[in-house]
């Protein structure tokens, strides 16, 4: 066991989680107190940070702060450091905490704001907003911690030695296979336990489920929240959010979109990659939908902690396990099809959807449930009219985060992808290896389009349901 | 039931009925979820149904650049009528993804032909009996491991000529290389160990490490770092240098020396291949001179045969290298993977 590398990894992951949660929380404070239309637009912009490939963002910062960086003369910060790795990983992951906090505050009641006029500014955050968001933030913190802990590309470029390097070495020399070709559980367990223990400890201290307080006065308006937040907090959070959005989205996106070769290559890539586009969308959509649907069906089972296991183990080990289980005659039909990718994504990301939906289901308004039961509602009717409207925001957020992670997932599927089942992310890494930077940039643009596609489809659905579209009675 | 009651009323309007149904669907919030799951399931089943149809097509696993491999496989299909299904390797697993997969699938092989862009993994797999018993694999063409410099930072005449020079304090913090535990960089280091002997090699590795080089996760990253001037000198593959030059980076590769390593492509037929006849045809096709020439023309390979070279390069005893692999890797890990 390489303890210094493990210490480095834990430090990078821990600091990234802390900064990411702080920035996400501050940005959520601002977004919750602005007009919902602008909130949605800014959220969509912030989410781009999540979808930007790590190597692209790292190269962008090397352009500014590298040894020959254009800002280096007047901003002599050393990007080749542990701090640099934390900074870039924070910029890549902060929207997870933002979505987590926003999703929790959707349940903020207007009566809670009005009950005590003294509840404003810091007190509002301390006694109301923070307790409401705490559970979601811890969950998002675990997610960020795991993503940062497993990231190898960013620390490697910035010369920070981390534990995943040790794992890659073993993977390329020992293959996690015994001499007779069987999966070597002992080596796999020996190498992966450090990556599992820390997040599991975090999960164990995760606060218990929220109490499902009755909802009587409807959600608080942005105007009311802004009033209670006071101008100082509002403008301070606005400034921090604008700064973070500018650095995490504006800078890399500008580099990507203003490179003329990106647009020259885009038509070629589009012509060559319709299958990739479809595969990425299909695998991500189906897997995450199954995750959320399974969560709705099984949220009462005590399996929340167990489901995190496949999410925490490195994707290549999950892939090796799936080959071992499914590459045999009775289930070969699944192994030879795209179904194995859907299965891998579902297993890997079920924890995310399941735990979010289960937490949401446990905190639904019990008064409403009882009232509906007295009126004879049960089963599907109860779910449709009482539970779903309350859990939809959290379920949607979980679906979307898992969808984004699936879009960029390479590790889980690289060992099991069937011929013709290649995704955009896989092609990006393939091209990257051989230095086709312009094509990589063009594929990144396509991935960005896929990432925002569900938001656009959702908005289209809302528009169709609106009276203007004429579909409502 | 009377006949009149069963008859639809005359004022029935199907359009109204359909519109009411559509309105109901849109009113029903989980409609989108149900629609997505239903559509996905239908598509998944259609995808699974294709599996049977694909049973007759051979599968090739290749770590050759997809941009170059795809047209060659397409031409093979054009000439023989055999459609090939390909799985390409990815940088994300340090180019050993397919080697791992071949080992993991050994009990029930899915791949027929393995087209690798280097030699060590192929030899390792051959030693593990992953390939067929006779005429298992062949080497085609070659790339090389090169020293590359940034011409804006360093004049060609001042560039280090020997690897031992890279440990001079002049180049402290100015050399970039991929972790010598992965891919062709690892092979190159292992070959240098044979060339110099273990003691000299370890001393050189230690001196190199203490000279604070940029250790990155891939050869293309080395080219990128040298190209943008973050590092002045890089150890990388010739095809990565060519890719960097194509991107307009100010790079030049130093000439081959006796410390350079040639890295051929290899093509192998998997033991227990499901399509042995088609696999054999592809195996032969990929060794044809015109295919190798095409790969050389696009810089995926540097030359057609080692025999055409006049320069001396590292001559590797592969049996010895494979025998000492674990020991040497442990030494590399101790030197380069420390804090």
Task: Present the secondary structure layout.
The complex is a heterodimer of chains A (473) and B (339).
Chain A: H1 3-32, H2 36-51, H3 54-65, H4 82-105, H5 110-114, H6 122-150, H7 153-157, H8 163-173, H9 185-204, H10 222-257, H11 260-272, H12 274-298, H13 304-312, H14 315-326, H15 332-335, H16 339-362, H17 366-374, H18 379-408, H19 424-433, H20 437-465
Helix pairs in contact in A: 1-4, 1-6, 1-10, 2-4, 2-10, 2-20, 3-10, 4-6, 4-18, 6-9, 9-13, 11-20, 12-16, 12-18, 13-16, 16-18, 18-20, 19-20
Chain B: H1 3-6, H2 14-27, H3 31-54, E1 59-62, H4 66-80, E2 85-88, H5 97-104, E3 113-116, H6 120-127, E4 137-150, E5 175-178, H7 183-196, H8 198-210, E6 214-216, H9 219-227, E7 233-237, H10 238-246, E8 251-253, E9 262-269, H11 276-286, H12 289-297, H13 318-323, H14 325-336
Parallel strand pairs in B: 1-2, 1-3, 5-6, 5-7
Antiparallel strand pairs in B: 3-9, 4-7, 4-8, 4-9
Offer a concise description of the structure.
The complex is a heterodimer of chains A (473) and B (339). In chain A, 75% of the residues lie in helices and 0% in strands.
